[in-house]
Fold each of these.
Amino acid sequence: MDDQTRNTEQSFKLKWISEPLLKLFKKVTPAMSQTEREAIDAGTVWWDGDLFSGKPKWKKLLAVPPSKLSAEEQAYIDGPVEQLCKMLDDWKITNEDYDLPKEVWQFIKDNGFMSMIIPKKYGGLDYTNLAHSAVVMKIATRSISAAVTVMVPNSLGPGKLIMEYGTQQQKDHYLPRLAKGQEVPCFALTAPDAGSDAGAIPDYGIVCKQDFDGKKNVMGIKLTWNKRYITLGPVATILGLAFKLYDPDHLMGDKDNLGITLALIPTDHPGVHIGRRHMPLNMVFMNGPNWGKDVFIPMDWIIGGPDRVGQGWRMLMECLSDGRSISLPALSVGAGKLCSRVVGGYARVRRQFKMPIGRFEGVEEALARIAGITYMLDAARTLTLSGLDMGEKPSVISAIVKYHLTEGMRQIINDAMDVQGGAGICLGPRNTIGRIYQSLPISITVEGANILTRSMIIFGQGAIRSHPYIFQEMEAMAELDHKVSLTKFDRAFTAHVYFVIRNLGRSLFHGLTGGHLIPTPGHGVTRRYYQKLTRMSSAFAFVSDVALMTLGGSLKRREKLSGRLGDVLSELYLASAVLKRFEDQGRPKEDIPLLRWSCDRCLYNIQTALDGFLKNMPYRPVMYVLRWLVFPWGRCFMQPSDKLGHQVANIILTPSATRDRLTVGMFAPTDMDEPIGRLEDALQKVVRAEPIEKRLRQGTRGFDAGIGGMDALIDKGVAESIISKDEAKTLRDAEAARSDVIQVDDFPFNLGKET
């Protein structure tokens, strides 16, 4: 084909196909607000892009180097973090003092817990994201109140914002003071009328001139705001504030509305009202409101100075992923590790009907979820941290881990409470999970409510940001030059059409063959999981495109449908993380039950979400065609089997290297004055005594111990030489340890309160 013929065909295609389509797309595509645009522009596309492609490059994922703690970071966790955990008495903090002790506050400040992200040249620790996560996770297994206190200054707050966007003067002044604990930061975003819709904040500032600090006619801002739910607010010395800035007198230019802007305000500045507290479900970390009316600040208090006016929302979106990707996942995984160790041990020690409760199938089912979900959550945590430590800022993945890890924590804690029963609901020093149960709504609510995150953000943002062509098409539509817009749109749309056709073919072929012909980097137990996930990635990519083509902008409002597609993307990511973890840890044979349970669960959830989406599509003919293309032989994925669940539950019922690997990183005291220390001691003694007790009961069958109970049975066994005196001591030691750890705290009638 010569150049003239090719140019003619291209002109025809542009005029009669691409241009009408461009006009149609502009007409049906809903308008995007500036805050939505900035949220979508923020961050980077990483493994989520591969999952949206329909053909994930598994070798690319496996080549990602797993993050590792440096010798300095490990020493910090083994030293100051361990020491801090030992200083914490969570019952006293939450039930008596309603605050961390003064010596704990000072220890946190003196040992850099508030400066893990600050560069060393400013006096900070400058640790990796993995270390940041490991510190928060370990503290969370001791005290959620202390963990929140530590995590907030290292996620979304003045420190992060100053590091990324502050002027050099702001960095030189504030960062050393934050690193030394001389300043305690908080950041005020949420308002009574702007929670999830933070872009609609009513707080405002007016550009004006006023005398300030002995100077005449200083250019500045008169601020009025009312914020709530601000963590560290009651004790903060420096307040980060988000507000909308207006310039009605045009002192800075022609625009009236300058956009969302961020500022730093010392909390002792005249007009700042701060110090009152909220009471977040007995977690008692410092949290409270602040407000001000017509408070004047100079322009150089804006984070980044006047050049950053109106850029606040972008700045927040680019920094928000830290709280979603690091802090909240660390809390969630910490809860999972604690429950795996504590509840697994308790279920082996606690007995009913002369057998450990963990051996009852109903309890075993809950234990399997606790262990399996913990394994999966930790895999997602570490994979996400690897991406962050590579320099990625995966906004879609941060939403995935925020939602699914906090929801996973909810499932784990609810199962743990079911297993522990009365011991879980009666608060006291012995109860290690009660306060975590109370904290569940906090993690579910902060950094974007979970309902919103699932139904609007994961797929709503992912479809635009992670899809290989939709964002290009939207950018083309936004071009002001029609010729440039048409050319870019034609290029992106043509590639998009081929992309849809390829995924249609892949979905049908992989569905008909069960994915058996897909080449994979895995072998043995992982091979089929790579194939099944690739098949589901193709199906997801194809169904997503069909949904966008048939539903268009209305899909944004159909949050149930969008939520289900978000579930598919999320489960693909979680399963990817599990496979990556298994490979990174050297494919330990003992972890295969955890791997299989997690992947089977993810595949079943993917199938359920896709099936739910198809059943609820408004266009029935399209639904029937899609169902046949995606599931030509029907639904084929099953939930983890009972046999597999038994193997997973047994991991946390039995002391082993696998149990230790699953719970590594938690605070696990061995002191006998600690509930966990006593439980671990009892578990070891009970496991050691079980074969002796079995032999004793078989040898004394028919003997009625009566009111003498176990002691009488042991005496009978010794008298008849069924067991030795040493074995009798082993049994009595186990019984004493068992009896101690199943006790529940009780208090005086007035619960120890003064009348």
Amino acid sequence: MAKSMYQLFTGTVHARKDKVAAQIKVNGAWRDITWGEMDKVGTAVAAGLVQLGVAPKEMVSIMSNTRIEWVQADVGVLGAGATTVPIYQSSIADDVQYILNDSGAVAVFVEDDAQLKKMRDIRSLVPKVRKVIAFTGTPKGDWETSWEQFLKDGEAFLKDNAATVASRAAGLGPDDVLTLIYTSGTTGRPKGAIITHDNMLYESEAAMKVGIAAAEHVQYLFLPMAHVFAKVLEACWFRTGHVMSFWEGDMKKIVDNLGEVRPTNMCAVPRIFEKVYAKVMSDVAATPGLAGRIASWGVAQGAAAAKAEQQGQQPRGMGWTLAQKLVWKKLHTKLTARFGGRMQFFVSGGAPLSRDIAFFFKHAGFKICEGYGLTETSAATCVNLPDKIKIGTVGRPLPGTELKIAADGEVLIRGRGVMKGYWNKPEATKEALEPDGWFHTGDIGEIDSEGFLKITDRKKDIIVTAGGKNVAPQNLENIIKAKSPLISQAVVHGDKRKFLSVLITVDEETVTKWAKDKGLPGAYSAITQSKELESEIGNVLKNVNAGLASYESLKKYKVLDHDFVVGDQLTPSLKVKRKVCNERYKDIFDGFYVGDASAD
């Protein structure tokens, strides 16, 4: 039994040395990389770090988008007996400086020239960093080196020091720190969650035990490796030895890549499913004539079926039966081809998935296994399984994980996946972790009679209106986004206010096409402020309000002339930074309530 993640990796290498480990796209063609090749590069990286003077348990950072070199560098860090500190490539220089100094990182792998510049700008402020290694770009001076040169230096060092390098990883144990994953920080400075080797060994064991990770899988990976969700996928990959297909680095090419690599499963955040849904809805709306009317009718039948199922009823009737044959069967065939023809199931995590979108995929014949976890619980805590999906929940806990609901509704978690604590933050650790191991998630939830967990909202995000009504904003935001393919993000506001209001952003590609179909001139920003779009969004919100209690209804709204971006209003897992938005758009929110005496 492996006692470290590096030993887990090398065990798979020995068993599957000549088997395909990964697929990457090079010059327009997909190329296979074997486990033996992965091991060779990882060992060269480890040797390079040892030559650099990196000591066991020292910190080495990786600041890059997801790519094969990210994982190879990670393997090398472990091979040197060190600890990986991921940093999002979207992080601003100030946050990079903070994380490097807080963790004490002594070397940094970066992706490209943009990240090299970021490091140059803060060089004098990160005195512990001895070397910056660039996967691509043009390194300059002694402080920087290229990936290719670093590997050559490592291979040369290895010739006379193989035993020294091999001894490094042999010293790793289950309680050693595998990685420091800094929370994305929707408020204040990010905290470094201490994730041990055993945390990830457990996650991979449990995922394989319940069948969501298997040797025969072909998985498509685009999630940021700096996120704990992707870290778990890496751990599962090392355990099962399945094939991992890496994206090209372009969000617009994800669906095209799926058709090329033909994966059996894919893990994603809800925004990806929202975009697929929006594209289908847009195509339906643009279909002319009788075919368009039938498609729109069929989609409406699906929405009615979803509503019935959410009320615990089975959708029935000739209309639904006919819609399945005329519309949903064709939709399934079309999406099956787009996804590559072998997709067995999706896993959704990182943020709540809209029930409407979950039912849309179900009716189209695709399984989305929604799961739940936090950085501090090594991601996977609960998950719906392909043979038992309960839409509206995040599934049952993985084997070996315990759940309980505190008196105030907060979800508490205990088990091998729970972090050791926060790096350099004993008080924050004490606040989050009880002496008996229960971790306070900050999420409000409930456990049903079958053991499925339902998350209702973040504890700190709950809105209490001036009338004393509690409102879960994430739930409302998901409903809003599911009602129109035009809407990309929604931020509901109203804490201590007399009514709720909402800021809306619209998807540039979808709304531009919508405007063109309606003969509306102008660029994206102009379209967002048009009377026609204001009217369209107003009608969407009327539709939303029709299904809400009076105290939940959205009285005022504003469509912004820009969409949200990662690193600003969005976290890397595409969740809205609520505090940032409340501060950034304070004048807009305040304006909603000027001179309005209406009550709940």
